[in-house]
Design a protein that fits this description.
Helices cover 59% and strands 0% of the residues. The protein has 4 helices and no strands. Helix 1 (2-17) runs parallel beside helix 2 (39-51). The longest helix has 16 residues, at 2-17.
């Protein structure tokens, strides 16, 4: 867990410096301190970093809307077409 906190912090900083979007998915099992000791702290540190206004944090639906707007696209279907058609 200690290495993961450092890695997540470094990755999120690198992505932010390039104006990218950094997405992290934590499953609710991280709060099982018996089977996953220390991982609750990784989750909490990641939330603290996002909440410190250093990074933008939002639900995935809102993030997708902002990303599409930045790309000048109207829908995720347009992104899919670009990816599939090249």
């Amino acid at each position: 867990p200690a290495q993961s906190t450092t890695i997540l912090t470094n990755l999120s900083s690198a992505v932010a410096s390039h104006g990218g979007i950094f997405t992290v998915l934590f499953h609710n099992i991280v709060y099982d301190r018996h089977d996953w000791p220390g991982w609750d702290g990784v989750f909490e540190k990641t939330l603290e970093t996002a909440a410190s206004n250093i990074y933008f944090s939002a639900p995935i639906g809102e993030t997708l809307k902002i990303w599409l707007t930045e790309l000048g696209l109207d829908s995720a279907g347009e992104v899919q077409k670009i990816v599939l058609d090249g």
